[in-house]
């Protein structure tokens, strides 16, 4: 009986210790939860800018804020913009890179326009590919690109410009 009473006292002491540890842990959890709640409230209080629209991105391009325009158009592309505007986003990203004189990157995005079946930007993209080659000093490829505009996109507004540039090379 003495042995059982000693075990019982020992177990009661362990229970008291566990209850104290449990209280300490609960206090820590409450502290962490309070800090998390405060951080979430702070984050919610920071006003978020409205999502960029296609028109916002075009305005940034027209204002020659090419980096901003590229970011906005890319955000639209990753955000699931409709396919009938996705080709335009790639076109304007290409125009932005052209404005920054980053011709390889510009040509990459102009080339992406051709992946879309129904794109009214194909003639424009082909013309701009010619401009990229011309600006890069590759007259032969520029001529090919301008010739392609006149042959493949005869109704494009850029046919006249392509012929003029082609004639000057």
Textual characterization of the structure:
The protein has 169 residues and is mainly α. Helices cover 78% and strands 0% of the residues. It has helices at residues 2-45, 54-62, 66-78, 83-99, 103-112, 122-136, 139-152, 159-168. α3 (66-78) packs antiparallel against α4 (83-99). It is rod-shaped and about 110 Å long. The protein starts with a helix and ends with a helix.
Secondary structure: elements and pairs:
Blueprint: H1 2-45, H2 54-62, H3 66-78, H4 83-99, H5 103-112, H6 122-136, H7 139-152, H8 159-168
Structural class: mainly alpha
How far is it from the N-terminal to the C-terminal residue, by CA? 110 Å
Instruction: Count helical runs.
Output: 8
Mean pLDDT: 93
Helix content: over 70%
What's the main sheet like? Answer: none
Q: What quaternary form is this? A: single chain
Radius of gyration using CA atoms only: 32 Å
User: What are the low-pLDDT stretches, counting only 5+ consecutive residues below 50?
Assistant: none
Features:
about 170 residues, mainly alpha
Condensed summary:
This protein has 169 residues and is an all-alpha fold. It has helices spanning 2-45, 54-62, 66-78, 83-99, 103-112, 122-136, 139-152, 159-168. Helix 3 (66-78) runs antiparallel to helix 4 (83-99), helix 6 (122-136) runs antiparallel to helix 7 and helix 7 runs antiparallel to helix 8.
């Amino acid at each position: 009986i003495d042995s059982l009473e000693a075990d019982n006292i020992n177990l009661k002491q362990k229970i008291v210790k566990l209850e104290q540890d449990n209280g300490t842990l609960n206090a820590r959890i409450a502290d962490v939860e309070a800090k998390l709640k405060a951080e979430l409230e702070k984050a919610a209080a920071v006003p978020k800018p409205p999502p960029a629209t296609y028109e916002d991105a075009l305005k940034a391009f027209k204002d020659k804020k090419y980096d901003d325009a590229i970011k906005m158009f890319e955000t639209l592309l990753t955000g699931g913009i409709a396919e009938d505007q996705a080709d335009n986003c790639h076109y304007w990203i290409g125009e932005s890179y052209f404005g920054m004189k980053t011709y390889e990157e510009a040509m990459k995005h102009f080339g992406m326009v051709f992946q879309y079946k129904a794109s009214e930007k194909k003639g424009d993209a082909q013309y701009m590919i010619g401009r990229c080659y011309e600006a890069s000093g590759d007259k032969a490829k520029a001529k090919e690109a301008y010739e392609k505009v006149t042959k493949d996109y005869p109704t494009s507004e850029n046919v006249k410009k392509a012929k003029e540039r082609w004639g000057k090379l």
